């Protein structure tokens, strides 16, 4: 067991787990941040995507030890009121069907828009290509990313 300090959603948190514990389990089981979903456990599906130092990362394949000196943002930390441009676009365009993959999709979109505020279709495809949606809402997801970019620019 180790004692690790994690900077999560703007707060310092301490977890007592082995250093090789996947960050996903520390977020979900130790910190109660269950918006970060378990999908595959090998970094292939994107259900667990969270931001690590602003980049879309997969906490299922990242250890607590290697995450100690980073800033982690989960879906719960994106916006306390759910009014981030990406969240608003997702609701406006009724993107979710079952919803399981959506936190990972949203966090990947947030990272994309931070780097490319007005992404083209190729950039959207590249940023979200490894986020699996078993319900097949990809067209709505792409439209929501474009809408989120408009909302972030203040367009109606």
From TrEMBL:
Keyword presence, Nuclease: no
Keyword Iron found: yes
Gene3D superfamilies xrefs: 3.10.20.30, [2Fe-2S]-binding domain
Organism domain of life: Bacteria
InterPro entries referenced in this protein's UniProt entry, alphabetically: 2Fe-2S-bd, 2Fe-2S-bd_dom_sf, 2Fe-2S_ferredoxin-like_sf, 2Fe-2S_ferredoxin-type, 2Fe2S_fd_BS, Beta-grasp_dom_sf, Diverse_Oxidoreductases
Residue span(s) of domain 2Fe-2S ferredoxin-type: 2-78
GO molecular function: 2 iron, 2 sulfur cluster binding; metal ion binding; oxidoreductase activity
Keywords (A to Z) from UniProt: 2Fe-2S, Iron, Iron-sulfur, Metal-binding, Oxidoreductase
Coiled coil feature spans: none
PANTHER family, alphabetized: BLR6218 PROTEIN, OXIDOREDUCTASE WITH IRON-SULFUR SUBUNIT
Name this polypeptide is given: Aerobic-type carbon monoxide dehydrogenase small subunit (CoxS/CutS family)
Native source organism of the sequence: Actinophytocola algeriensis
């Amino acid at each position: 067991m180790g004692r690790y300090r994690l900077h999560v959603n703007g707060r310092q948190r301490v977890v007592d787990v082995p250093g090789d514990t996947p960050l996903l389990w520390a977020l979900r089981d130790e910190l109660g941040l269950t918006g970060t979903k378990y999908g595959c456990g090998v970094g292939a599906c994107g259900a667990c995507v969270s931001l690590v130092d602003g980049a879309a990362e997969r906490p299922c394949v990242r250890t607590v030890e290697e995450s100690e000196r980073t800033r982690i943002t989960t879906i719960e930390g994106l916006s306390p009121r759910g009014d981030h441009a990406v969240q608003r676009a997702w609701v406006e365009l009724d993107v979710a069907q079952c919803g399981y993959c959506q936190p990972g999709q949203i966090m990947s979109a947030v990272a994309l828009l931070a780097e490319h505020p007005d992404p083209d279709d190729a950039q959207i495809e590249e940023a979200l290509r490894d986020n699996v949606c078993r319900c097949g809402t990809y067209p709505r997801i792409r439209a929501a990313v474009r809408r989120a970019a408009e909302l972030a620019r203040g367009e109606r």
